[in-house]
Amino acid sequence: MHPFRIIDTTLREGEQCACAHFGLEDKLALARAVDAFGVDYLELTSPAASPRARAHFERVVELGLRTRVVAHCRCVVADVQAAIDAGATGVGLFFATSRVLREASHGRNVQQTIDVIGPPLERAIGAGLETRFSAEDAFRTDDAELLEVYRAVAALGVHRVGLADTVGIATPSEVRRRVARVREAVRCDIGFHGHNDTGCAVANAYEAIAAGATHVDVSVLGIGERVGITPLGAFVARMLSVAPDRVVGRYRLEQLAALERQVAEAMGVQIPFNNCVTGEVAFSHKAGTHLKAMLQDPTSYEAVSPELFGERRTFIVGSHLTGRHAVAHRARALGLQLDAQQAQAITLRIKQLADQHDLSDEEVDRVLREWVLA
Ligand code: HCA
Ligand code: CU
């Protein structure tokens, strides 16, 4: 797996989430936390969006973070100038290229689209900024037209072209195919930005990298327009299990849970119970067959290790799905030795009780103690 860079866009795409209304203090705290986590870029709302956006952009730049602070800009010279003036180290330009958006949004044909991108791109390159041009709705754009646009911006010297799955419609195989074609067509870096409307954002980000993309957009908890984009946590988990050396030691995984809590609190929302890695049940094991194997080898039913993220696994012993290995293990932890017959009998008892309601660990322990004393 070749190197890849993470662009966190919690303070741009994430700000477009219906539930997000970040104040200055929230933004500064989040920028620091995302920087501390180790992402490579921080994308912020364009300073040209409003006076407040501009003031906040400048305050984030003043933090002097290690990560590069880039502005998301329309293909308008004044927007690029505002980004330069606000101290951005790069700009992410975007423009719709699909027929449906071209017609519904800006009404330009492909050549006119290329003509619009030129001046702001040249201004940014001239000012020494790192530049990216992203085709909005790339996956509903005609293949030949998409490559025509990318070749044109590459000829102007753009550092990176981006494919945006703006409506979350792309399948993983389509992402792989498209990115591979772009990889053949241009020499510059390639970014991917994927929405999660059909639940493919993580898989798509992975396929993009596998096909040659160098940069991926994520946000904390995946927040963004509608249901959002590739979540940082699930993305690092995905990459961790295929390219651990590209993740461990590079990103401060143990800070993920706190980072997500910070975003959830700033938005006034809950973290989903089954969120990848940090959800309350992410490392809970319940069925007897699973518990038995987990007691032998913790990799048997875990894709990523909770310890890497500072998380803990839990074994749920008091359910009707429990098994005698888990029950005997729980007993040993209490200093009680059970023979095979006893383990079998107590397991049956716990299952009967749990058919009424699941037993807490304390209740399981009480059943075990009472049985052994009886
Ligand atoms: C939008 C734009 C965008 C841009 C992505 C990018 C998208 O908010 O509509 O700059 O790469 O999803 O197309 O977020
Ligand atoms: Cu987007």
Structural notes for this entry:
By secondary structure, this protein is of the alpha/beta class. It folds into two domains: 5-267, Alpha-Beta Barrel (TIM Barrel); 284-373, Recoverin, domain 1, CATH 1.10.238. Helix content is 45%, strand content 13%. It has 14 helices and ten strands. The protein has helices at residues 24-37, 51-62, 77-86, 99-106, 110-126, 143-155, 172-185, 201-210, 232-242, 256-267, 288-296, 324-333, 340-356, 361-373; strands at residues 5-8, 41-45, 68-74, 90-96, 130-136, 160-165, 189-194, 215-218, 284-285, 314-315. The strands form two sheets. Strands 1-2-3-4-5-6-7-8 form an eight-stranded parallel barrel, surrounded by eight helices. Helix 1 links the parallel strand 1 (5-8) and strand 2. Helix 6 packs across helix 7 and helix 8 packs across helix 9 (232-242). The longest helix is centred in the N-terminal third of the chain and has 17 residues, at 110-126. The protein starts with a strand and ends with a helix. The site of 3-hydroxy-3-carboxy-adipic acid has 13 residues, from strand 4, strand 5 and strand 6.
Notable traits:
elongated, 2 domains, binds 3-hydroxy-3-carboxy-adipic acid, eight-stranded parallel β-barrel, TIM Barrel, 374 residues, 14 helices, Recoverin, domain 1, alpha/beta, binds copper (II) ion, two-stranded parallel sheet
